[in-house]
Amino acid sequence: MATSETSNIKRLQVRRFKPEENPKSTYLTEETGIWAWMTTVDHKKIGLMYLASILFFFFVGGTLALLLRTELLTPAQSFITADTYNQIFTLHGAIMVFFFLVPSVPAALGNFVLPLQLGCKDVAFPRVNLLSYYIYVIGAVFTLIAIFTGGVDTGWTFYTPYSATTGGNVMMMTLGVFILGFSSILTGVNFIVTIHRLRSPGQTWNKISLFLWSLYATSIIQILATPVLAITLLLLTMERALHIGIFDPALGGDPVLYQHFFWFYSHPAVYIMIVPGFGIVSEIISTFSRKHIFGYWAIALSSLAIAFIGFLVWGHHMFTAGQSSLANMVFSFLTFLVGIPTGIKIFNWVATMYKGSIDMKTPMLYIMAFLFLFMIGGFTGIMLGSLAVDIHLHDTYYVVAHFHYVMMGGMVMAFLGGLHYWWPKMFGKMYNEFWARIACVVIFIGFNLTFLPQFVMGSMGMPRRYFNYLEQFQGYHQASTYGSYILGIGFLIIAAYLLHSLLRGKKAPPNPWGSRAMEWQTSSPPSLHNYEHTPVVINGPYDYHKPMSEFQLGIEGSHNGHGEHQHTETKTVEADK
Amino acid sequence: MNRLSDFMLPPANSTFAAETDALFNFINVVSLILLIGITVTMIYFAIKYRRKSEDDTTPLITHNSKLEITWSVIPLILVMIVFGWGYNGYLTKTNAPDNAYEIRAIAKSWLWEFHYQTGHVSVNELHVPANRPVKMIISSDDVLHSFYIPEFRVKMDAVPNRYTSVWFEAIEPGEAILYCAEYCGSAHSNMLADVVIHSQEDFETWLETGDAIDDDLSPVELGEQLVQRQGCLACHSTDGSTLQGPTFQGIFGRDRLLTDGSTVTVDENYIRQSIIEPNTQVAEGFAPIMPTYAGSLNDRQIDAIIEYLKTLD
């Protein structure tokens, strides 16, 4: 490393700072009041505001899903009309993807954890961080207006020419998503700069957590892919409003061009959603196995590999769209390549458990569920990547099931794992471990009952987005609907015990899991500026063979090695102690 | 293991379905082996290495290059097999034999229209011969649709302003279902067609006689059959309920308010006009979305539909 040249070495006088057990002043007790929260630049508070918002949208999207499933109990119409059904599935998809999945881990959990894991006071641009939250809110308001002024029935993909000709308020909705994109871009920029510039003294690139690596990879995708979505939606709006022919064949446009544009964002967006989840898995597996992560660089670099290859596979959404055989072949080939780094991660995670000291607490339980469900999502992805088979399975319930296994079985499980893992740090309260495990098991059962039958239906030929269906599929649809109710109950249990924890929860110690990661070396909840000292890093976040005391070192003063000490990043700490 | 794909897949009735199914099966079996293997390992580790005391120490194992290479290369080989196999099967599905019988399929919201080489037209009913390659030339009159016959394992989008194609060779006479697989609006899930697979001789007979069999029917009976066959019922009910279009019940002789504010009486001419040029006089409260039947219904058939509607009080 360039920083270890002799001329740059400066010895730092460090001492141990044990995290305070029952901190009097925390970020939750400072700067209270609604106005203070609304104008806060504290990354932790912004993270919590994001968390509340995405949980709200998860609730809305989930309720919509239950309505859909209830309608599908019988083959014919039961309680809503076809048009209402079409609007509901559009909103379910759009809300879950754009308002929950994309911001869930980076903007909510990431915002809270990232500066803590870097040992800095805040992200690099705290005001931009607040701005990104308000842009998210404005985007959400546009979407809500769209829902109440005509609704949208295009599907979350807004495929032309249908979206250019159908009624409803498509423009308001696409503008909402357009605005939302800027929030995502700003978060990405903020994270990249923060990780580059605000690492603690001694925290070289091989000493940052894998969660940070995953956020770093995600941020790159956010910055590069989101503008394409913005352009696409803007073109779509122009077409609807000004009748400029771009995608609508009636105006001389090309509908398949829209699909290319849309998936050029939306396929990488799948990795925006899942890669941060990978980061959480690495953190939790290592912590609860109390063991060094296996293959640190393999996991870190595979995130970057996924981010890169993920840009080159969008065409696999269009195998039946009339694309040339050559394009189909290339996209199919690249799709299989993206499976390799993902597989590498799974093997490394399982290998981390080998000879560990495994504590099956709630977060770890969610990660076990994640691994199992995500593997099914991955294998069925291989199925769909294979050209001959995809011709049969494309646009059927098989795709719906695959997508939910990746997004819900993968991402949501990782998110829940992360939420339970960082909950004590966020609020300084423990939750009821017994009920948390029960909820995890209920969700696991409900999830599989909901989506396993969909693989079977899809293989049999049940197309997606069908309001009515043939009677031969009814048994599977019913199983799926009952599964979704169980899933719903699981989430209600979570809501109940988390609320209880907030109000009456036991006080959490600073480091309830015995983790070596940096965010656990400050009080729970952390003080307004995270650390009262400047943390100094001499070990990696997974060095469980080193004593805890070596992870609590720092220097007096909370300038975090920045400000008056402009050149701290060029100093190296004496690392052999 | 074939049981799994037999259970999951619909009956196979095209020459290349078996290859698709074999690949489906292969991926399922390999995936299941890996899934079970990794899951069992995971659970075994979780039990064997469960935390015994808070002072547990763990060995420092940071990485193992040999292992990393093994679990990168083996999956790489597996996915390359799947890729090659899948591409090969796809090529078979894309390249239609030169002697294929061509049928034009036109997708409209929300029906399928099929034009045969004899000039014959059928709606929501695709007639194909068995044991002879059939090539479908697909297009759309409005938005995206997708031509999907699960039993043949084929699917191809119908794109406006462009022709796409798909081919298949059915093995046995029988029936199958054609679905629209690309979301296309309100009645997307009603956009189904029956696929009738004839033996070669029957297919020739059907092409020659076609509608002639209808000659024996009275106009009302023929009209009743036509509104079913032509896909009218996807949007127009006969029991008074409102779907995407006005109900047929009691429609004849009624005064109807149009979107332009004028009123017409539903008589023979209005019905004929609505079938040939559906969107010139649209009933108030409905969208101008009905596709035209000009060219696919002859005068005798339109007469029959009018006679049938008169009977629906």
Explain what this protein looks like in three dimensions.
- Helix content of chain A is 62%, strand content 1%.
- By secondary structure, chain A is mostly helical.
- Chain A has a single domain, classed as Cytochrome C Oxidase, Chain A, CATH 1.20.210.10.
- Chain A has a 3-stranded antiparallel β-sheet, with no helix packed on it.
- The longest helix of chain A has 37 residues.
- Chain A is globular.
- Chain B has 313 residues and is of the alpha+beta class.
- Chain B folds into 3 domains: 67 residues, no CATH class; 110 residues, Cupredoxins -  blue copper proteins (Immunoglobulin-like), CATH 2.60.40; 94 residues, Cytochrome c-like domain (Cytochrome Bc1 Complex, Chain D, domain 2).
- Chain B has 7 helices and 12 strands.
- Chain B has a 5-stranded mixed β-sheet with strand order 3-2-1-5-8, with no helix packed on it.
- In chain B, strand 2 and strand 3 form a beta hairpin.
- In chain B, helix 2 runs antiparallel to helix 3.
- At the A-B interface, helix 3, helix 8, helix 9, helix 10 and helix 11 of A face helix 2, helix 3, strand 7 and strand 9 of B.
Summarize it.
Chain A has 577 residues and is mainly α. Helix content of chain A is 62%, strand content 1%. Chain A contains 15 helices and three strands.
